[in-house]
């Protein structure tokens, strides 16, 4: 057979006649179950671009880079000459075109040698997210100084990949979006756990390393497949709001009602806002992030002290806030009494105990919950994750006795707090719970157990459940990531050091997890 470059013809190798064994990508399901099954909590669906179940993976597909290195092991110094960003789509099975075949053994200098292929993959495929076909003619359409990468056409998420002339490991450039509607997942494929070898076409047992890419593979036997286990390279953050109306003094009989509503909010976190994911991870099941970029910190020295090298800022304006939590001036004179009553009735009727602060994102004829996908901080000098949460919200009261204000009163409050937590990790989903009552606001960070175990093909790693060990700092107390400041704290401030909270699958620890309370008096 003739092996040629995926996008150019300057590399060609004459091999012995092949036996027409195609390179195939198919299922890997933990436990040997070859059927696809999905189990999720009632009402739960994936955010836009998130790979949570077989339907999402089949909708978006994935990309593969493959390297032919003759009898030599992959060394990260050659081009993707067998497959370059090959789109793998689902249509009654995982397919691609043009079909490629395994190289057979060949004879060089009278010695029979095995010809080797290495495979690297990522998901979702960028074109399914609204990107366009890449310009792969060298440096044209390159990203910044990284002239070995070409743009995908997306402004956020997967914005670039290494071009087909680049000699080295395949890279995917990811940029964190400001809008929740633009956030997408990013996964990379590895050898599944428990898979330590395979049988090649000659009957030889060839070793594989679980948690690492498929490297240095000789011709597989017929009907065998490259079975990717996809791992989350990002972490996920959700925002929940719980409103405690028990102490508001509401009196339904006399028409006295209270609402807590958000005008805007923001999160600042000491994690990268851009980085490149090297698909050839060196530590099993651990994403290899490189070329880390941060939003530059400009301003006060104390901000640099809190966030260290840099930060990512996620601003949530009213357009992204869930309608039933969105602030509105119900006492405005521009509204008729009927309009006021109608709008108030909607908000008051939909004041469920726990709601997602972020507005659902429309997908086709349905909508899905919104989350933020964040690049994990891989810097060893930052032992903790620092979160600063700022919120402007209103306390609004409807009371017929308030004649001078048209029956409504509205008080705007802005508060911010810095939370210092155990470092967030890739593949884990975190929920920031904001708890409001009439006189105080509380914060709690917990695991978002949004998904039960699922099986489908190719296997995709779950968002892992976690309980972070965290330290809460009271307002106006600074935090220096590299200096232990505890002995010098002002005597009139108290510092709560929360002990590690244990977690097991059979215990739900969240209700008893201590939380920090800020009193507004």
List keywords for this structure.
8-stranded mixed sheet, mainly beta, 521 residues, 5% helix, 6-stranded antiparallel sheet, 2 domains, disordered C terminus
How far apart are the first and last residues' alpha carbons, in Å? 80 Å
Cα-based radius of gyration, to the nearest Å: 27 Å
Largest sheet: 8 strands, mixed
Strand portion = 25-35%
State the helicity in percent bands.
under 10%
Structure, explained:
The protein is mainly β. It has two domains: 2-232, no CATH class; 248-357 and 375-427 and 436-451 and 462-519, no CATH class. It is 5% helix and 35% strand. The strands form eight sheets. Strands 3, 4, 5, 8, 13, 16, 17 and 31 form an eight-stranded mixed β-sheet that branches. It has a six-stranded antiparallel β-sheet with strand order 9-10-11-12-20-21, with no helix packed on it. Strands 18, 23, 26, 29, 30 and 34 form a six-stranded mixed β-sheet that branches. Strand 1 (2-4) and strand 2 (12-14) form a beta hairpin. The relative contact order is 0.14. Mean pLDDT is 74; it is low at 1-18, 27-46, 448-457 and 465-521.
Can you lay out the helices and strands and say which pair or pack?
Layout lengths: L1 E3 L7 E3 L39 H7 L1 E7 L14 E8 L3 E2 L10 E3 L2 E3 L3 E7 L18 E2 L2 E6 L5 E6 L8 E5 L11 E4 L6 E3 L5 E3 L6 E4 L11 E4 L2 E9 L13 E13 L4 E5 L9 E6 L7 H7 L4 E5 L20 H13 L4 E3 L4 E3 L2 E3 L3 E3 L9 E15 L9 E15 L6 E8 L3 E8 L11 E2 L9 E3 L23 E2 L18 E4 L2
Parallel strand pairs: 17-31, 18-29
Antiparallel strand pairs: 1-2, 3-4, 3-8, 4-5, 6-7, 8-13, 8-16, 9-10, 10-11, 11-12, 12-20, 13-17, 14-15, 18-23, 18-26, 19-22, 19-27, 20-21, 24-25, 27-28, 28-32, 29-30, 30-34, 32-33
């Amino acid at each position: 057979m003739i092996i040629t470059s995926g996008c150019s013809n300057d590399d060609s190798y004459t091999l012995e006649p092949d036996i027409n064994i195609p390179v195939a990508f198919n299922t890997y399901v933990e436990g040997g179950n070859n059927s696809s099954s999905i189990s999720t909590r009632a009402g739960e669906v994936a955010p836009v671009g998130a790979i949570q179940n077989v339907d999402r993976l089949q909708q978006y597909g994935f990309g593969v880079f493959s390297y032919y290195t003759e009898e030599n092991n992959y060394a990260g110094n050659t081009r993707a000459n067998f497959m370059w960003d090959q789109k793998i789509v689902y249509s009654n099975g995982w397919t691609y075109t043009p079909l490629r075949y395994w190289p057979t053994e060949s004879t060089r200098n009278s010695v029979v040698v095995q010809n080797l292929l290495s495979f690297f993959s990522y998901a979702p495929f960028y074109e399914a997210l609204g990107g366009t076909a890449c310009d792969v003619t060298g440096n044209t359409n390159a990203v910044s100084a990284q002239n070995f990468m070409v743009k995908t056409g997306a402004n956020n998420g997967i914005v670039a990949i290494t071009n087909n002339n680049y000699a080295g490991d395949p890279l995917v450039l990811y940029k964190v979006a400001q809008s929740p509607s633009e956030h997408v997942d990013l996964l990379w494929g590895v050898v599944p756990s428990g898979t330590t070898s395979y049988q090649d076409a000659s009957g030889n047992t060839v070793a594989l390393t679980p948690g690492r890419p498929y490297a240095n593979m000789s011709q597989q036997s017929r009907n065998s497949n490259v079975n990717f286990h996809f791992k989350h390279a990002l972490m996920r953050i959700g925002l929940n709001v719980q409103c405690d109306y028990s102490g508001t003094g509401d009196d339904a009989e006399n028409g006295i009602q209270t609402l807590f509503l958000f005008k805007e909010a923001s999160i600042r976190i000491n994690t990268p806002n851009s980085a490149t994911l090297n698909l050839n991870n060196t530590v099993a099941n651990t994403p290899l992030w490189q070329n880390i970029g941060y939003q530059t910190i400009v301003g006060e020295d104390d901000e640099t002290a809190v966030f260290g090298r840099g930060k990512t800022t996620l601003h949530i304006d009213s357009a992204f806030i869930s309608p039933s939590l969105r602030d509105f001036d119900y006492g405005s004179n521009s509204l008729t009494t009927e309009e006021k009553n109608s709008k108030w009735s909607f908000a008051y009727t939909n004041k469920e105990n726990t709601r997602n602060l972020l507005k659902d994102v429309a997908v086709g004829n349905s909508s899905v919950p919104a989350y933020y996908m964040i690049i994990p901080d891989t810097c060893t000098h930052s032992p903790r994750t620092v979160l600063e949460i700022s919120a402007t919200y209103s306390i609004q009261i409807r009371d017929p006795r308030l004649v001078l204000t048209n029956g409504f009163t509205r008080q705007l409050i802005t508060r911010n707090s810095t939370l210092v937590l155990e470092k967030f990790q890739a593949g884990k989903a975190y929920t920031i719970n904001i708890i409001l009552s009439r006189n105080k606001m509380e914060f709690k960070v917990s695991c978002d157990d949004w998904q039960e175990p699922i099986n489908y093909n190719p296997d995709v790693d779950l968002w892992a459940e976690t309980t972070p060990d965290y330290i809460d700092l009271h307002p106006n107390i600074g935090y220096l990531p590299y200096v232990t400041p505890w002995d010098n704290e002002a005597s009139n401030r108290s510092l709560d050091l929360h002990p590690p909270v244990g977690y097991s699958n059979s215990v739900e620890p969240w209700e008893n997890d201590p939380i920090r309370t800020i009193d507004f008096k």
